[in-house]
């Protein structure tokens, strides 16, 4: 039996999952609204964690698939593995986690996740796991602070750093006050259908994976491909910006 097939995936406590993510995820941070926590074990040792929970802005994400109920989708919002497990371990563990979700939470029809091309990669593991690429857009929310910290402007606790006249800190104002700079590169949105019949209700185009290279947006393990000079223009859409010329191309 291959080592990959010896990996066991099981539900774990949030405290154990959070500690692992803080240590091994490139951001060093957890998503506080994660609800489902899965651990990947080999020889009874934890080597990977996948955390699922509601999207921060469910009302926006819900509309990506027509007819989706409020609790019929979930986000894979953190995935972290150490360097012990062999190649293809992540995709196998995602597949097992999704089977567990299908069995124990059959009301969940699909999963959304985002790859951060400003810090990590363009979603190689998602593509290997059967996710569909549905959006490529230039980053507008990840910022670098002078301290070296990387933050999301929507989830960062701004109040402890900047207080405005009205007692609140928001938007670009606090970013300017802190001399934060927008991280360059791209964000990628992926969707996987647990219920395959729901794919027909997708309200945004499925992009071919080649659209990533066409847009000059490739990135792997924090290293950008030297394609930036070939980047295509982006056009705004209700669902986000996507490369021109790929709207009707299926995988």
Order of helices and strands: EHEEHEHEHEEEHEEHEEEE
**Multimer state:** single chain
Low-confidence stretches: 160-170, 226-251
The residue fraction in helices comes out at: 10-25%
The CATH topology annotation reads as: Aminopeptidase
- How far apart, in Å, are the first and last alpha carbons? 32 Å
As a percent range, the share of strand residues is: 25-35%
Q: Which structural category do the helix and sheet elements fall into? A: alpha+beta
The number of distinct structural domains comes to 1
The CATH superfamily is identified as Gcn5-related N-acetyltransferase (GNAT)
Strand order within the widest sheet? Answer: 1-2-3-4-5-10-6
Q: What is the overall number of helices?
A: 6
Describe the structure.
The protein is α+β, with helices and mostly antiparallel strands and 251 residues long. It has one domain: 3-Layer(aba) Sandwich (Aminopeptidase), CATH 3.40.630. It contains 6 helices and 14 strands. The strands form 4 sheets. The protein has a 7-stranded mixed sheet with strand order 1-2-3-4-5-10-6, with helices on both faces. The protein is globular and about 45 Å long. It starts with 7 loop residues before the first strand and ends in an 8-residue tail after the last strand.
Topology of helices and strands:
Blueprint (H helix, E strand, L loop, with lengths): L7 E4 L2 H11 L11 E7 L2 E9 L4 H5 L10 E9 L7 H16 L5 E7 L7 H5 L3 E7 L3 E3 L5 E3 L18 H7 L3 E2 L3 E8 L16 H5 L4 E2 L2 E2 L9 E2 L6 E2 L8
Parallel strand pairs: 4-5
Antiparallel strand pairs: 1-2, 2-3, 3-4, 5-10, 6-10, 7-8, 7-9, 11-12, 13-14
């Amino acid at each position: 039996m291959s080592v990959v097939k010896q990996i066991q995936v099981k539900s774990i406590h949030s405290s154990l999952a959070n500690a692992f993510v803080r240590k091994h995820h490139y951001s060093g941070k957890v998503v506080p609204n994660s609800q489902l926590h899965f651990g990947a074990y080999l020889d009874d040792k934890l080597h990977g964690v996948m955390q699922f929970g509601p999207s921060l802005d469910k009302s926006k994400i819900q509309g990506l698939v027509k007819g989706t109920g409020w609790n019929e989708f979930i986000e894979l919002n953190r995935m972290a593995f150490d360097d012990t497990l062999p190649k293809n371990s992540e995709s196998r563990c995602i597949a097992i986690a999704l089977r567990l979700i299908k069995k124990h939470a059959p009301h969940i029809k699909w999963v959304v996740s985002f790859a951060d091309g400003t810090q990590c990669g363009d979603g190689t593991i998602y593509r290997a796991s059967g996710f569909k690429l549905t959006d490529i857009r230039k980053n507008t929310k990840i910022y670098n602070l002078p301290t070296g910290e990387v933050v999301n402007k929507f989830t960062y606790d701004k109040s402890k750093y900047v207080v405005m006249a009205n007692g609140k800190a928001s938007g670009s104002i606090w970013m300017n006050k802190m001399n934060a700079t927008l991280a360059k590169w791209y964000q990628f949105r992926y969707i996987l259908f647990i219920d395959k019949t729901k794919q027909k209700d997708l309200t945004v185009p499925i992009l071919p994976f080649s659209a990533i290279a066409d847009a000059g947006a490739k990135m792997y393990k924090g290293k950008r491909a030297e394609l930036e000079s070939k980047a295509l223009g982006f056009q705004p859409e209700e669902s986000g910006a996507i490369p021109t010329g790929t709207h009707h191309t299926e995988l």
